Request: fold
Amino acid sequence: MKSLILTSRFISIHVTKFLFYINNVKSEGMRAKGIPYLSINFRGVLIISERFKMNNGMQGNVILRPQRFVIIIGRGAQMKIGNNVGISQSAIICRKKIETGDNVKIGGGVCIYDTDFHSLKSTDRLSPNLDKENTVNKSIKIEGNVFIGAHSTILKVVTIGENSIIGAGSVISKSIPANEIWAGNPVKFIKNI
Reply:
């Protein structure tokens, strides 16, 4: 059984490195459990710093949400992941810019979207071209030493300040100051750290 687990991890890391290579993603010292889903536009950029850890599916995290880690980077979009970042079974959609600092932990099932996906005008949504053209995309920044609890959703134009903690299941649609704990839907201040 142990040799099967080691073989699975060996395959995961090498398939993931190959996926990163063919998508022109630079990463150093990565650790992967399971195989992620990557879709990176040829004009999109994904930069992963040192000691990146990711979990995918059931073998990756005991939180029992068996989804793969999904990264979708759109045309002209940029995503940068800092040093020593760990992400479990999350979905990140980047249409403009998403950046994390160092030592960030992102729990299982977290969704990070820097886009509305569709125009907010109902008449625009009747036309695929107008819908795409009038969709709002705005940057997200997660500063260093932040912990995002499982199943949270981070929406566009948000900065999460250094050392802050987001409680599980939260919806973050506004910026969070440094050194604070926030939780809920909508997210609310809980206490200072």
